[in-house]
Amino acid sequence: MNLAGKRALVTGASRGIGAGIAKALAAEGADVAITYEKSADSAAKIVDVIKAGGRKAVAIQADSADVAAVQASVAKTVAALGGLDILVNNAGILRLGGLNDISLEDIDALLDVNVRSPMIASKAALPHLGKGGRIITIGSYFADRVPSPALGVYAASKSALAAFTKALARELGPRDVTVNLVQPGSIDTDMNPASGPTAETLKQFMALGRYGATDDIANAVAFLASAKAKYITGSTLTVDGGANA
Ligand code: NDP
């Protein structure tokens, strides 16, 4: 196993891509803390799956829009697992609307959850990450190509993560901590179901012609978290079935 002895925190991991990442890191030997906002039952099930595989796991309720809750989630992870080696900033929300239509509340929510939260969690994690530490953030392929005006603020929130990733890679390089961004394409989750008119439109952009699965992103994250990726930092890995090809 590639991650034996490592301690990981995955934000927003009660469902979808985050749940897949948490299970993949545990399958590689890591102990894992997860955060969630509302889905306590789903989070408990992910914890049970990980524990059944022989790893430590803990679920922490923490709204990513709440700075104190995000900071506390890092402290609770360290207390529960005995340290922190891998932070995965996955929690994110989608709110649609062109600039004329989108509300100020939705703009604030997108920036708070998708942009500020990864910064706050990373800042809180800094004192704990030793040599070989990892910060991996989940962006979006819509950071590179924006096929609808309704995606503007969401796409901007995800674009911000690329610059943040590069700067933090430079800041933490001297400590041998790597920082990378994974940009999923359309992955079948509650946020972006693989059926319906929107899905059929999005599939037309994809070289592979189909939605991805949460495993497709989780495998990329598990690789970046491993020692095999020790010379990769400040990078963006787009996993989108060729949608931006
Ligand atoms: P889902 O909506 O399916 O799941 C979101 C997860 O994040 C849930 O565990 C949810 O917790 C948690 N979450 C949402 N808001 C908050 C919050 N305020 N505080 C804490 N946790 C929160 O999303 P996906 O799995 O599809 O997306 C995961 C990430 O991948 C996001 O960053 C998203 O932007 C990105 N992404 C997804 C794509 C896709 O096609 N699915 C494409 C590109 C990027 P709870 O269950 O408690 O609500």
Protein model, in words:
The structure is a single chain. The two termini are 33 Å apart. This protein is an alpha/beta fold and 245 residues long. The longest helix is centred in the middle third of the chain and has 22 residues, at 104-125. It is built from seven helices and seven strands, in the order βαβαβαβαβαβααβ. Helix 4 links the parallel strand 4 (86-89) and strand 5 (134-138). The chain has a single domain (7-239), classed as Rossmann fold (3-Layer(aba) Sandwich). The radius of gyration is 17 Å and the shape is globular. The chain has helices spanning 16-27, 40-52, 67-81, 104-125, 152-172, 197-203, 214-225, and strands at residues 7-10, 31-36, 57-61, 86-89, 134-138, 178-184, 236-239. The structure holds NADPH dihydro-nicotinamide-adenine-dinucleotide phosphate (NDP). The site of NADPH dihydro-nicotinamide-adenine-dinucleotide phosphate (NDP) has 31 residues, from helix 1 and strand 2.
Tags for this model:
single chain; alpha/beta; Rossmann fold; seven-stranded parallel beta sheet; 42% helix; binds NADPH dihydro-nicotinamide-adenine-dinucleotide phosphate
Which ions, cofactors or small ligands are bound in this entry? NADPH dihydro-nicotinamide-adenine-dinucleotide phosphate
Highest CATH level, the class: Alpha Beta
Name the helicity range. Answer: 40-55%
Rg (C-alpha, Å): 17 Å
How far is the first residue's CA from the last residue's CA?
Answer: 33 Å
